[in-house]
């Protein structure tokens, strides 16, 4: 098992603080590193990958420091956000170069295995310069996986992928995590993180705002109103009835239906059917619209 | 295997770029001028010094070394492909040394050939060989300097040009002390000591030239290795 540990890590540029006193431990499995653009996700990833020195604190990968220590790359793979690849090579050549630089005993077999893993065997003999964005991305992921690393760091891996490629990549990360590897990927898109990983590290303005299972984080924030999307046969009349309920703190009405804010999850969900029955309104849809990461996230940003 | 792989990918990156082709005219110009002067029967004392030193050693050698030396690593830093090479468990010397070798070889070949031809036409095979040998020493020292520059500054070409044009070109003529830190002067001295002719004028002593060339090479190579060890990729800029 190879853990990635950040212990009291800060990074500043002049008097701009990019990362502020972050402590986290990444164990086996998939972890999502979530935050808005400019929150410091890439800075954190680069410190883990040995491409930035922490201004304070320590970053270790399996108990050895990441900075100025090329030996960490024996068990660490990085897929950076920048797309740059040696355009003049084919994917096959690029993978074999990577395998040789890792001093693998059988570069050709390692390249083949990595290309199969990302489903890039069909185009492997075309120059990378001719690839689409998604194909380049998969080629770069293959290169990061060529030495079968224990730790894989990916910066915005789903950018530029079509839905099918995205799904495939999610599957791949999921399988890698399930097989005991430590996978961390950053994203500013909440659905991605939600679908791939249950464990989330949320970074907002350089600080670790939340960490752990996102559903557990959500439950901790019980003082926050729950939001439901409701659609019924008569939204306006239902709104009038709902606002009379003590458990309801607000109702908004628009073309799509009602957005109801409830202070107490239990009493609202028990009250709604009774009201609907009494008023003779049929409820067509009831969605707890904030059980997504989006709401956790925006709540943390606001706090 | 690692050395070969880095050499191969560096060479492909360097020769695959168009800007390297732009350098072909410079060596051809040296040869062309020498052939023309010789063809029209101009005495070597009238054209030898400007073509061999003024153009060959003071312009062609440093400019080609500048393109090659900043190109082998600098272009990969610019486009970000360096990350693929750095995320490998390799001592950084194993990355810097093959790249230095490629830059030196590319420069030495593109410079030694025209210098040899022009030297033969101006004086003798002896001068041709002396210029080619000294040019190769210069190619190594310049390449090490420019390769290190590509790691310490974002504008290695600009800084390299300042060194070549201002330090060596301008100050070297007026302030004699700067010659001790001028690769161009080492090259002239080495060539002149191998094959003494009135065409070349050594301004520093041979031991100084040899020791300083070695110091430039070793020092800047060590600097490049150390800088690459601490290579930082900037975080989100937005």
Automatic annotation (TrEMBL), chain A:
Q: Does the keyword Cytoplasm apply?
A: no
**One GO molecular function term?**
ATP binding
A Pfam family it matches: ABC_tran
Ordered alphabetically, the record's keywords are: ATP-binding, Nucleotide-binding, Transport
ABC transporter domain: from which residue to which, for each copy?
4-230
The answer on whether this UniProt entry bears the keyword Isomerase reads: no
InterPro entries registered for this protein in UniProt: AAA+_ATPase, ABC_transporter-like_ATP-bd, P-loop_NTPase
Q: Which PANTHER family match?
A: ABC TRANSPORTER RELATED (PTHR43335:SF11), ABC TRANSPORTER, ATP-BINDING PROTEIN (PTHR43335)
Q: Which family does it belong to?
A: Belongs to the ABC transporter superfamily.
Quote the protein name from its UniProt record. ABC transporter ATP-binding protein
Q: Which organism is it from?
A: Phytohabitans aurantiacus
Q: What is the lineage of its organism?
A: Bacteria, Bacillati, Actinomycetota, Actinomycetes, Micromonosporales
From TrEMBL, chain B:
Query: Transmembrane as a keyword?
Result: yes
Instruction: Spell out where the chain crosses the membrane.
Output: 20-40, 52-74, 95-117, 129-149, 156-175, 204-225
One Pfam match, by short name? ABC2_membrane_2
Superkingdom: Bacteria
UniProt keyword annotations, A-Z: Membrane, Transmembrane, Transmembrane helix
Q: Does the keyword RNA-binding apply?
A: no
User: How is this protein named in the record?
Assistant: ABC transporter permease
């Amino acid at each position: 098992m190879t853990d990635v540990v950040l212990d009291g890590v800060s990074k500043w540029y002049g008097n701009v603080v990019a990362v502020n006193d972050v402590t986290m431990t990444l164990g086996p499995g998939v972890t999502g590193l979530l935050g808005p653009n400019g929150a410091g996700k890439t800075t954190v990833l680069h410190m883990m990958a040995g491409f930035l020195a922490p201004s304070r604190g320590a970053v270790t990968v399996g108990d050895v420091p990441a900075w100025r220590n090329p030996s960490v790359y024996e068990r660490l793979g990085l897929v950076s956000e920048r797309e740059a690849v040696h355009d003049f090579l084919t994917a096959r050549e690029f993978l074999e170069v990577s395998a040789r630089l890792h001093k693998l005993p059988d570069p050709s077999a390692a390249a083949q295995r990595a290309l199969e893993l990302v489903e890039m065997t069909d185009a492997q003999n075309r120059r990378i310069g001719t690839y689409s964005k998604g194909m380049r991305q998969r080629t770069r992921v293959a290169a990061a996986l060529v030495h079968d690393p224990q730790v894989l760091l990916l910066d915005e891996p789903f950018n530029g992928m079509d839905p099918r490629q995205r799904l495939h990549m999610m599957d791949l990360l999921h399988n890698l995590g399930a097989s005991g590897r430590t996978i961390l990927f950053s994203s500013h898109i909440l659905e991605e993180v939600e679908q791939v990983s249950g464990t989330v590290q949320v970074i907002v303005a350089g600080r670790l705002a939340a960490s752990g299972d996102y559903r557990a984080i959500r439950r901790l924030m019980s003082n926050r109103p729950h939001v439901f999307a409701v659609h019924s046969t008569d939204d306006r009349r239902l709104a009038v009835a709902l606002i009379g309920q003590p458990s309801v703190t607000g109702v908004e009405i628009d073309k799509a239906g009602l957005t109801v804010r409830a202070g107490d999850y239990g009493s609202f969900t028990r009250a709604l059917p009774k009201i609907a029955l009494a008023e003779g309104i049929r409820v067509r849809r009831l969605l707890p619209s904030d059980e997504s990461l989006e709401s956790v996230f925006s709540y943390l940003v606001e706090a | 295997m690692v050395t070969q792989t880095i050499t191969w990918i560096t060479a492909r990156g360097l020769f695959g770029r168009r800007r390297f082709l732009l350098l072909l005219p410079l060596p051809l110009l040296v040869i062309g001028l020498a052939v023309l002067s010789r063809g029209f029967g101009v005495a070597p004392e009238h054209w030898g010094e400007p073509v061999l030193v003024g153009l060959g050693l003071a312009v062609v050698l440093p400019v080609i070394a500048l393109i090659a030396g900043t190109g082998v690593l600098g272009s990969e830093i610019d486009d970000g492909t360096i990350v693929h090479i750095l995320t490998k468990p390799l001592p950084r010397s194993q990355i810097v040394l093959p790249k230095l070798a490629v830059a030196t070889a590319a420069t030495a070949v593109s410079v030694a050939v025209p210098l040899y031809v022009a030297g033969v036409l101006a004086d003798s095979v002896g001068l041709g060989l002396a210029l080619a040998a000294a040019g190769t020493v210069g190619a190594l020292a310049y390449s090490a300097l420019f390769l290190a520059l590509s790691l310490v500054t974002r504008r290695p070409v600009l800084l390299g040009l300042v060194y070549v044009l201002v330090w060596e070109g301008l100050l070297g003529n007026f302030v004699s002390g700067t010659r001790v830190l001028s690769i161009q002067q080492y090259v002239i001295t080495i060539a002149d000591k191998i094959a003494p002719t009135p065409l070349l004028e050594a301004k520093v002593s041979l031991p100084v030239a040899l020791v300083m060339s070695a110091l430039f090479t070793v020092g800047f190579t060590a600097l490049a290795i150390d800088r690459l060890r601490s290579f930082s990729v900037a975080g989100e800029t937005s």
